[in-house]
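During the reporting period, our protein records have gained a structure token line. One record among many is quoted in full directly below:
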Amino acid sequence: MLSFALGTSGISPVEMASAYAIFARNGVYFEPSFLKRVEDINGTIIDRGPIQIGQERLNPKLSFQVIDML
């Protein structure tokens, strides 16, 4: 268990990015999604990605303090 601090656990870049994105979104977590929309050559939207509702996982004040320290 002590080796986790050295980064020996298997975490994907997507999981790491979604963890840090909580700070940028004021403590709100959104499930990672890769597809936002599909457009044709003229810019007409053919399909949109799923609409998501975020879950508050972190107090917005604490999130601001972390961003301020970074």
Q: What stands out?
A: Strands lie at 28-29, 37-39, 45-48, 55-56. The longest strand covers residues 45-48. The chain has a mean pLDDT of 84. Helices lie at 13-24, 60-69.
